[in-house]
Amino acid sequence: MNRILFSTVILLMAYWLPAQSIIKITSDRLFDGEQMHSDYGIIIRGAQIVSVGPINSLGTADETIALGDATLMPGMIEGHAHILLHPYNETGWNEQVLNESEAERVIRATNHARYTVEAGFTTIRDLGSEGAGYADVGIKHAIEKGIIPGPYMIVAGRALVTTGSYGPKGFAPHVTIPLGAEQADGVDDL
After folding, report:
1. Helix or strand or coil: residue 51?
2. E strands within 47-175?
3. What are the pLDDT digits (tens) for 147-169?
4. How many CB atoms within 10 Å of residue 156?
5. Which of 25, 93, 138, 164 stands 20 to 30 A from 19 (CA)?
6. CA 72/CA 43 separation, integer angstroms
7. Taking Cα atoms as reference points, which of 55, 48, 61, 65 lies closest to residue 30?
8. Predicted TM-score (pTM) of this structure
9. Which residues, in sequence order, are CB contacts of 8 under 8 Å at separation 6+?
10. Distance in angstroms between the alpha carbons of the first and the last residue of the chain
11. Contacts of 25 (CB under 8 A, 6+ apart)
């Protein structure tokens, strides 16, 4: 069975290698997003891909990593993520947003960021912190600083929703419940 190695390795290597290290990564196959190539590789400097092509045309590097029977491919993009939530089959939305501390949610998100990049997603679009303020921005900055591994993040911070369209339901009218998003109706509110 073929192993597939995503460009995740490049992102993860950026945390441990000197910025100017030149690394050659070779494999039996490379998928460039359009077609499969045999005996191709890449040259990276730090976290940047500087060359892609047939192994014999790539030139020299400080180090070569030969992956053999693997397929290199570009990282994938997740277009609708919520890094600060975990699956609802583990814990429902109400329980997470209303009862878990922001610290617990950030710790979970740190793990989610690592799992996400290890799964081959090198970019995510995170569409709201679900009641955790701007914690998604802090996680994004921690990744960018190399404090934690994770994908490149495009974040929303506090999401916007129309009044009554989102959040927990069924509570008495006098009870104020955190919604996980900011309500905004019309031009003035936006």
Report:
1. strand
2. 48-54, 63-66, 70-73, 76-81, 121-126, 152-155, 160-161
3. 999 999 999 888 888 887 877 77
4. 16
5. 138
6. 12
7. 55
8. 0.75
9. 75, 117, 118, 119, 120, 122
10. 52
11. 9, 10, 41, 42, 44, 64, 65, 67, 72
